[in-house]
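Exam revision sheet. Question 4 asks you to relate a sequence to its structure. Input first:
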Amino acid sequence: MGTVLPSIPAKRYFTIGEVAELCGVKPHVLRYWEQEFTQLRPMKRRGNRRYYQHHEVLMIRRIRDLLYDQGFTISGARNKLQEMLHAQRSTTTTDADMDGGVPQDESWASAVQPSSALALHDMAAVRKELIEIRQMLSIDG
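Answer key, structure tokens:
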């Protein structure tokens, strides 16, 4: 990526303003991308407030990369994202790419199905927290 983006906090839902900051785009761009990329469907609550999940933030970052850094058109980015989703579904991750069943970076989640990306993110967050607790216990004990 050309632009260094902030790390994504470990929380379940993000407002459109938070996502705009995390992805380096304006909120109106995110609303436009929702129309162009059918995979992008944030949950809407009272007053049509949008709440994005972790996997959607990763997808937006991937869309941003395709459009802004790699120079794809909207149509080209849509096709590339579909290809990535199809390729991800048809291949399986090997044990060599994982440590204890949890991927070590977030690039894996940019093209996986939403439910599995969120589940893997949750597992990664829990694993990280458990490692931190174990380290604290070994220092104190």
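Marking note for examiners. The two ends are 43 Å apart (CA to CA).
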